């Protein structure tokens, strides 16, 4: 758990609760408060209102002219760009599907909650999506620890959930309602190890990971296993807790082992701070990371300290595949930003969900989960997606290098 105080997040939580508690009363207990079909931007400080919880059992195919799905993500906090980019990708997919007539002749609407990057909040908002908003399916989360917290709730209620981007194996092991559209960390660890060993020809790589995140702990182990199998050595393994400000003790120990590189399987805010402090201490080793680096904030924080570093990711906006180029163009037109991997995965997760919704005999949890499980060769922006028996996707990873403050394509590494 993160220990830093987040007053803004606190008020966000309070306001969402108030909005939901007062909403139906203010509207005279009306059970049709679906606002903004297709959803809008979640207002800062409160969840967008799109449905109330007045009906009882979740209908297999909801009445009315919209189908409500749920989304939970970190729209604020130290991983805020994860939730924001994912939300942008999801909204683009919804806009497109609705413009094309919707799904099952109904428009898609989304209810989005900010979990502020906190596990406990993730569990709370997923409960709310299911019991109050009565969503038929849920998209989220990015951070594996939060997908695990939210996924347990979704599984318990039998509501299908797709994580766009959580890579820790435990996420889909929760049960048959939980899916993902991204690769998993044993593979990602292999990708970084292979790139370090074969492309960069490195022999000694130290590791500094976030002991508070399932993602970071798992990816650290996966990398070490692969790197050692490939003949590499790991001279030092150090830990921090997400949100820490001072990494000098760990970095000094690492410096003493004179590694060729340091692997940092953490999230971008911490990684940016680690990079700054590493360079200050005179550490010149190459920095390596995983998808948790995927944020424009990484270079804002790290500046020259992160220049030249490499990390594995789910896609590169420079890939020439038509799926990528079409998506990048549409996303830039709507948001005036280059989409990161999270935006692409958010978009893919929503489109894959809509396809399964269209094919399912009904939108009941079991039927929809079966349709999701049957997904084969779905042409995503982040690659071709087939859901395997463990409800995961097998896809190639790319390695990006930070050049001139921006991620540039360096290599593609396919599953062997
Ligand atoms: N894979 C990370 C996790 O499981 C989340 C992440 C995915 C972050 C993609 C950035 C980009 O926690």
Structural commentary:
Strand 6 (205-210), helix 7 (214-229) and strand 7 (237-240) form a beta-alpha-beta unit. The longest helix has 20 residues, at 7-26. This protein folds into 2 domains: 8-183 and 322-395, Response regulator (Rossmann fold, 3-Layer(aba) Sandwich); 185-313, Rossmann fold, CATH 3.40.50. The chain has helices at residues 7-26, 80-99, 119-131, 144-157, 170-173, 185-199, 214-229, 248-256, 268-280, 296-302, 322-335, 341-359, 365-373; strands at residues 66-73, 107-114, 138-139, 161-163, 178-180, 205-210, 237-240, 261-264, 286-289, 310-313, 378-380, 383-385, 397-403, 406-413. A 7-stranded mixed sheet has the order 7-6-8-9-10-13-14, with helices on both faces. Strands 2-1-3-4-5 form a 5-stranded parallel sheet, sandwiched between helices. It has a two-stranded antiparallel sheet with strand order 11-12. It is α/β, with parallel strands linked by helices. The model is unreliable at 1-41 and 43-59 (pLDDT under 50). The two termini are 35 Å apart. It binds phenylalanine. Phenylalanine binds at residues 82, 142-144, 165-168, 215, 291-292, 294, 341-342.
């Amino acid at each position: 758990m993160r220990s830093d105080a987040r007053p803004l997040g606190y008020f966000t939580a309070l306001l969402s609760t108030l909005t939901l508690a007062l909403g139906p009363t203010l509207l005279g207990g009306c059970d049709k408060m679906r606002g903004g079909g297709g959803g809008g931007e979640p207002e800062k400080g409160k969840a967008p209102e799109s449905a109330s919880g007045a009906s009882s059992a979740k209908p297999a195919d909801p009445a009315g002219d919209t189908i409500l799905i749920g989304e939970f993500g970190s729209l604020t906090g130290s991983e805020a760009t994860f939730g924001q980019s994912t939300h942008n990708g999801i909204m683009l997919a919804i806009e497109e599907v609705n413009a094309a007539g919707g799904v099952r002749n109904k428009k898609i609407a989304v209810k989005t909650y900010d979990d502020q990057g906190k596990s406990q909040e993730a569990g709370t908002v997923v409960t709310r999506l299911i019991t109050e908003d009565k969503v038929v399916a849920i998209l989220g989360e990015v951070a594996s620890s939060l997908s695990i917290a939210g996924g347990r709730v979704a599984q318990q209620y039998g509501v299908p959930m797709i994580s766009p981007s959580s890579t820790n194996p435990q996420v889909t092991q929760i049960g048959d309602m939980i899916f993902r559209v991204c690769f998993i960390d044993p593979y990602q660890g292999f990708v970084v190890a292979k790139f370090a060993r074969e492309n960069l020809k490195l022999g000694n790589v130290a590791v500094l990971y976030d002991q508070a995140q399932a993602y970071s702990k798992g990816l650290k182990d996966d990398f070490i296993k692969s790197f050692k199998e490939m003949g590499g050595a790991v001279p030092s393994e150090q830990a921090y807790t997400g949100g820490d400000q001072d990494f000098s003790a760990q970095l000094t120990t690492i410096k003493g082992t004179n590694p060729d590189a340091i692997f940092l399987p953490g999230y971008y805010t911490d990684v940016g701070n680690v990079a700054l402090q590493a360079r200050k201490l005179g550490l010149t080793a190459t920095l390596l990371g995983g998808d948790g680096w995927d944020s424009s904030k990484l270079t804002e924080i790290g500046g020259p300290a992160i220049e030249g570093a490499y990390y594995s990711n789910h896609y590169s906006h420079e890939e020439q595949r038509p799926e990528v180029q079409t998506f990048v163009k549409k996303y830039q037109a709507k948001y005036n930003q280059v989409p990161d991997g999270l935006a692409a995965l958010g978009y893919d997760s929503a489109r894959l969900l809509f396809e399964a919704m269209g094919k399912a005999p009904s939108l009941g949890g079991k039927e929809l989960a079966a349709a999701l499980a049957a997904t084969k060769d779905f042409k995503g922006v982040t690659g071709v997606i087939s859901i395997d028996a463990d409800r995961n996707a097998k896809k190639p990873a790319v390695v990006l290098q930070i050049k001139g403050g921006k991620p540039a394509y360096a290599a593609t590494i396919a599953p062997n």
